[in-house]
Amino acid sequence: MADRKPEENGVSGKPKQLMMADFDPPKPPKRNKYAFACAMLASMTSILLGYDIGVMSGAQIYIKKDFNCTDVQIEVLVGILNVYSLVGSAAAGKTSDMIGRRYTIVLAGAIFFIGAILMGFATNYAFLMVGRFVAGIGVGYALMIAPVYTAEVSPASARGFLTSFPEVFINAGILLGYVSNFAFSKLPLHLGWRFMLGIGAIPSIFLAFGVLGMPESPRWLVMQGRLGDAKIVLDKTSDSLEESKLRLADIKEAAGIPEDCNDDIVQVPKRTADEAIWKELLLHPTPTVRHILMCGVGIHFFQQASGIDAVVLYSTKIFEKAGIERDTPKLLATIAVGFVKTIFILVATFFLDKVGRRPLLLSSVAGMIVSLMGLAFGLTIIEHSDQKIMWAVALCIATVLTYVAFFSIGMGPITWVYSSEIFPLRLRAQGCSIGVAMNRVVSRSWRLCSFTPCSLKHMVETLRKLSNYSGPFLGGDQDR
């Protein structure tokens, strides 16, 4: 034993030579494929809202012709979804705490399926509104539950990337809606819009069955006292066992479970009841919770106050005001909007964790402001001209495309990422439901008053009167 070489005893007589690899930065953990698949399946519920927004932008043209609807009826039909989705998102927080995140996603798909079928078979305006109500409830459920579930299953290293998925699928749904408009626009009038709306039932079927293969949220499992099941899910969705233990400890602390309690089934203290959570959020919030609530709700307000839903929903009307009169070119232009929106949201998902939330958000807002100013300028020029001005038409199309592109790189995905990350675990479901409620209320207001045909006309008229300009490039005749 005495003649064993020093190296064999773990002691070397020579200093260890450092290799170049020793100076390399540590490699980031590999992307957790299981968490990735779970986040993708859950986020696919957001495709329901996107499809409805996209398909309604074109279907409203044919619904108006088929049912001889007024502009006001069409505006109500289009915008009322946000009132209904507000009800769904408000109920989703309580529902998800009762039956779990996974089955709430299934419920959202089932409700939207029924709504899409009812809209597809609608024989009159009232019947169509009933289908719109049911679909809106499903959309509200989907909007609230997707970011919550995704945030609760995502590892810390990829949470920003994965929680941006709901916005990715909203954009994918919008693009599918635009494609559906174009694909069925050549059918007879009474069939085309019904296929456009009814075909939305198909994604919800695949969604409901796909979600059944997902695990339940580890946070919900802990809240039910199922620590053993939660640990299994956390081990699968974490980058390491150490991270899994840390995540479990954080959830146990939020649920009021002692740290040294490691039984598979435990009794959860009643202090985490839903009433206590609402009181902590709204009635007696601490300064920290109040600040978090203001930030979480505020970012949802400003996302919709930017007018994105109005621009997307009334894109056909905007292009019509810009001088594109035939239905087919208008629908092709909306497909371009959906394509650009989807491409740039995919770009944003890969930069969220690298560049950071704040730089992307500031760049997004600046680009949106410039784009909307350009759109307003182009529409004003066209409105006051006796002949078609091609550069103004091109400017309107380009600014709509740049507007949705800038929205997609920042304001779109970061809203959902930020609101799902900022709330503490015990307040996350209810906090996110308040944020989604604000999102839908503001969206409803903008849809009805921002870019409707009447509003565009009033906007241009107001700009004309304020400018009091009668020069040749505005048409010359001030009283025309």
From TrEMBL:
Membrane topology, as annotated: Multi-pass membrane protein
Region (Disordered): 1-22
One Pfam match: Sugar_tr
Residues forming coiled coils: none
Sequence ranges assigned to domain Major facilitator superfamily (MFS) profile in this UniProt record: 38-480
GO cellular component: membrane
Keyword entries, A-Z: Membrane, Sugar transport, Symport, Transmembrane, Transmembrane helix, Transport
InterPro entries: MFS_dom, MFS_sugar_transport-like, MFS_trans_sf, STP/PLT_plant, Sugar/inositol_transpt, Sugar_transporter_CS
Cell location: Membrane
Location (main, coarse): membrane
Superkingdom classification of source: Eukaryota
Keyword Coiled coil set for record: no
GO molecular function: carbohydrate transmembrane transporter activity; symporter activity
Membrane-spanning segments: 34-54, 74-93, 105-127, 133-149, 161-179, 191-214, 331-352, 364-382, 389-418
Family affiliation: Belongs to the major facilitator superfamily. Phosphate:H(+) symporter (TC 2.A.1.9) family.
Record protein name field: Major facilitator superfamily (MFS) profile domain-containing protein
The species this protein was found in: Lactuca virosa
